[in-house]
Design a protein that fits this description.
The structure is a homodimer. Chain A is built from 9 helices and 3 strands. The first copy, chain A, is mainly alpha-helical. In chain A, strands 1-3-2 form a 3-stranded antiparallel beta sheet. Chain A binds a DNA duplex (30 and 30 nucleotides) through helix 3.
Chain lengths: ~220, ~220
DNA sequence: GTCTTGAATTTTGTATACAATATGCCATAA
DNA sequence: TTATGGCATATTGTATACAAAATTCAAGAC
């Protein structure tokens, strides 16, 4: 037997329910502030209350739900300040990921990232926003993978899920989009130069622009 | 009615159970790797399985427990790498807290922190380690409060709880203790000078020393 | 002696029943 | 009209019962 464990993905019912709820929240089917009636959700998900309630606890831990004693769960509503705070933290996490990635990045990693960057620029050129976002996410995930800190990656993913629930992504204007693509180019250059401080600064500035976009979208409501 | 809500703290059973378990884990009564038998714990805590299992989900979200499908929960065992990763993240979080605190710190905050620092040095002078740690924690909590980012504070607390379960704190030697006290003095000076970059560097270096201590303690087992 | 094999037992997973709390509605009084 | 009290309903909180899976351990095969 080799070292790698390959556990068969037998999702337990609470986990499956949590997963399903997570997407429902992120896709906006369950919008911010929505009250989650247990009995009703049980029917929709085809599970009983016990596993559903465990799913609630998991999602509450991720900050996607708030639970009020005797008053049930509801989808979290992010205030302007919450968004600001989340992005402040996200910037620090990305900055750390950058610093760590610089210490560990290989030439293969760089080649792969440059490929992604090219794909992203192509998507940008043909104004294909969904593909752009998909690749963009892949690049940031890849950076985290190179940083090789699972605890950081977990924190990153959790925070990302919370912000995704905001659904601010359609709000990107052309000028900001151009800038974001350019910043990505600089980021890969800094990574190639193994310049941790520069990469960190770029990532933090990059996140600040993203925060701006998110806050403007929030304002629009 | 003024803006502050003052909700009466009616802990629900799962929350109370989680709180109790958390302290049992951090105090080492439930050591790393311990299997948590549901029926047995139900009797010890005086609750039924349903709220206990919700408590498990909460603690698993905090990273204090791992749950294996059909095989129950056990107290997390931190590997050497886990500790390294946790401290890397912790350093980034503290660094961010420092940068934010610099932007918001008031003279009253500084006066309060200087008072704590004096108390801490007194505890250090009389070799009172428990008091030293209590004050040390208060200072770091205070810094987080000044940073005024609840999401950061939450991440900080969660990560701290995980590391506390390691119980490495009795492992501090005299040289390191002296250095830590001196670093704290420098930190307050940087905060007073509103020098965010300096404070960040100090906090990160401070954490690196702490990480060193933790790893040595881990080695000793 | 070691390795299977397969009940018996234990433990976890899920559903449901009952209890406690909150919510909504309507009657009544100021 | 507006506020208050109290009942009916709905919803959440907790315990327990049953189902499914894992673990244990002894008997037999090699």
């Amino acid at each position: 037997m080799d070292g790698s464990t390959l556990p068969i993905a037998r999702l337990t019912l609470p986990e499956a329910a949590a997963e399903r709820l997570r997407t429902l929240i992120i896709e906006g089917v369950l919008p911010p502030g929505a009250k989650l009636n247990e009995r009703e959700l049980c029917e929709r998900l085809g599970v009983s209350r016990t596993p559903l309630r465990e799913a609630f606890r998991m999602l509450a831990g991720d900050g996607l739900l708030v639970q009020l004693p005797n008053r049930g769960a509801q989808v979290v509503v992010l205030s302007r300040d919450d968004v600001r705070h989340a992005f402040e933290l996200m910037a620090a996490l990305e900055g750390l990921a950058g610093e760590l990635a610089v210490q560990r990045v290989t030439d293969e990693d760089l080649a792969y990232l440059r490929g992604l960057q090219a794909d992203m620029e192509a998507a940008h050129a043909r104004h294909d926003l969904p593909t752009y976002y998909a690749i963009n996410r892949t690049i940031h995930d890849r950076l985290n993978a190179i940083a090789a800190n699972p605890i950081l990656t977990h924190a990153f993913r959790t925070l990302n899920a919370r912000l995704h629930a905001l659904r601010f992504r359609s709000n990107l204007n052309v000028a900001k989009w151009n800038q974001a693509v350019a910043e990505h180019r600089d980021m890969i250059a800094a990574l190639a130069a193994r310049d941790g401080a520069a990469l960190r600064d770029l990532l933090i500035r990059h996140l600040r622009a993203k925060q701006q976009t998110a806050l403007e979208a929030l304002e629009a409501d």
